[in-house]
């Protein structure tokens, strides 16, 4: 249990850096399962302001944001873009 806490603390600290957070999300986006990306985005949200702060910046309720970023969430592009913007990030496209 102690090791997990250390890893979570390390990851939260690293995700505060925008470049690391972007690479983290890009890596998660390579997985074919959208759940991986949504869980990664939730970790970024937690590290870069928290759900309450991001919900306020996106005009979403906390409950809606929690549901959106859950493994069963199904966010729209508009919502994802708003969440990324609220965390200081943005969408990008690159060639493989």
Write the layout of secondary structure elements.
Elements: H1 2-14, H2 18-29, H3 34-47, H4 50-58, H5 62-68, H6 77-86
Can you put this structure into words, describing what you see?
The protein has 96 residues and is an all-alpha fold. Helices cover 68% and strands 0% of the residues. It contains six helices and no strands. The protein has helices spanning 2-14, 18-29, 34-47, 50-58, 62-68, 77-86. It starts with a helix and ends in a 10-residue tail after the last helix.
Question: In a few lines, what is going on in this structure?
Answer:
The chain is mainly alpha-helical. It is 68% helix and 0% strand.
Largest sheet: number of strands, sense, barrel closure: none
Q: Which overall shape is indicated by the principal axes computed on the Cα atoms?
A: globular
Helix/strand order, N-terminal first = HHHHHH
SS element count, helices: 6
* Head-to-tail CA distance between termini: 38 Å
Structural class: mainly alpha
Mean pLDDT level: 93
Q: What fraction strand?
A: under 5%
**Spatial extent as radius of gyration:** 13 Å
What low-confidence regions span 5 or more consecutive residues with pLDDT below 50? none
Helix content, binned percent: 55-70%
